Structures are given as structure tokens and as C-alpha cells.
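Support request, please re-run this one:
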Amino acid sequence: MIGKSPYSIIYSKYVTEKSVDISNKYKFITFKVSVCSNKYDIKYAVEKIFNIKVISVNIINIKGKEVKFKNNIGKRKNWKKAMVFLESGSDINFSEFK
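Re-run finished. Output below.
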């Protein structure tokens, strides 16, 4: 947390069909976050940026796929996904943020 801006920890909201279905049942939001961040950094960043109370954070490390393009083998970047569980009654309105 020291020396890190909350905006350098959280990159974007990560929306998939599965995350939308589960977030309708439970109160959580999925974000794409920095690879070097931990649960405490993510919790701090979400609470600072959106002014809401976070209950818990789950983190998933996604390995980059190997891809082949014109007989060259490469690899996509590794990235990290965070599932942030919110307190009941709190919600994030993303239309306010650009």
C-alpha cells in the first residue's frame, strides 16, 4: 500500500456472463487488478475509490496463454482477477466514473 495509488492497483471492471450471473445472486464485483497487488491493497483501493465497505476479497491468478501467429510462438501476459464482496446495502454506480 505504501507508495501505490489506488488507481494503479485496479485496472478495470471485468464483466463476463458467469460473473454477472453470480453477482446477481451474491453481492460482489469482479475487477482486473495489478499482478503485484495483494488482498489488502485491493480492499484499500476499492474502499478509497468507491467509498464503500468491503467484506472480503478473493484473488485468482490467470496465466497467459501460449499463442501462435505466423509460425511464431508467443505468450500473452499473466494477469490477476479480484472478486470483491461488498457489504449488504452498498452498491457501485459505474455510470458516475469515466
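The longest helix spans residues 39-50. The chain has a mean pLDDT of 88.
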